Amino acid sequence: MANNSRRKFLRDLGSTAALIGAAPLAGLAAASGRRVLLQPEQRVSANDKIRIAGIGMGIMGFGDVTCALKVPGVELVAVADLYDGHLEKAKSVYGNHIQTTRDYREILERKDVDAVIIATPDHWHDTQAIAALEKGKAVYLEKPMTQQIEEGHKVIATQQRTKGILQVGSQRVSSVALAEAKRRYEAGDIGRLNLVEAKIDRHSALGAWQYSIPTDASPSTIDWNTFLKDTAKMPFDPVRFFRWRNYQAYGTGVPGDLFVHLITGLHFITGSKGPNRIFASGNLVQWQDGRDVPDLMVAIFEYPETPEHPAFQVQLRVNFADGGGGGEYTRLIGTEGVMELGWNDFTIKQHKLPKAPGYGGWDTYNTFTKDQQEAFVKDYMSKYSEADRKQERREDIKYSAPRGYDDRLDHFTNFFESMRSGKPVVEDATFGLRAAGPALAVNESYFKKKLINWDPVKMKIK
Question: What Pfam families does the annotation carry (predicted)?
Fold first, then answer.
């Protein structure tokens, strides 16, 4: 995976779980200019204990559980996973006292489990989230919220009916940097938003989901039939189990893994409910490893004018075959400036057009006769003052979170505060589907080779 990728994989887990870092991205940020260090909110945690369980202990599962345990008053009591090696690893990391099981339903039956972290393959998200809510558990559900759009509506309905707590795990919405970016957008720092450009490019096997496969993977160490769920039955295949993101049956490809992060951040900043038209194109370029999803995708979204924001366009790109080494950025471009987002930092660059249009250069002025040029300049100077003619160029301002800041820790803190105080979570099921729905519609556009008309209010394909 590229050095500036959002995720940094620590190969030696040692006595801690696999952590997924969120290092600030260089993007296109300015090298000079004013810098503002953002300070996270100081919280005082309640004394009451919250007992959690992890369902799905792969890369995200270990990372999420380890991060959640940094919040004061949180205790891990159980984990569930279909691979015995993950269960053994969990005991070595978190202690032999925790319960380990292949059957997540055993965890949901425990009266002492207050909340579950669901980090299973995408095709299991809806079933496990709904079952947990029905059992009265608070749910932290990894993104994308669901694999299918209709599944998302079922999760929303269950959350609303049970009045349970569910937070989707796109941690960016809890970032102190994104909160400030939202304030700067609403203050008009970039003028009228008209275009968003975002990319996440990679050039490595791990970045393209070629995850390592343990040598003991077998039908005896893995519950293969449960993993398949309601997908097509097939012989045991450890590649599909450990690299499930590469297959339509179990994952959501590039849109569900990566586009959804970009959409989530954009919706948080702008207050948007989503686009109304979506078109995608792509190809399987480099990773001819049996996967049935593309490794290069480009999507164009049209966001209509609403009371919350003007009409604007969005261009998203993910390229797993980037010979330039990869890189990522998100740019919100307005009429008077641009906001260049990293992960926990962003830069505002402002270029405001002068009132006077200027003349000369690549212009018809140079084709005028001398007399006409003199007459034109005289008329021009009488119309526009010196202030009208001046190009306003303000100093770049870079906002960044403190070194070592972890937005995922803030996301979990928000989740547990909601459990303790009853205040709303920052990313509930409805917000989650407003981000996941357009991402899933990208797959619909790509595989059916057609423009998708999306209803951002009803969250449905028209």
Answer: GFO_IDH_MocA
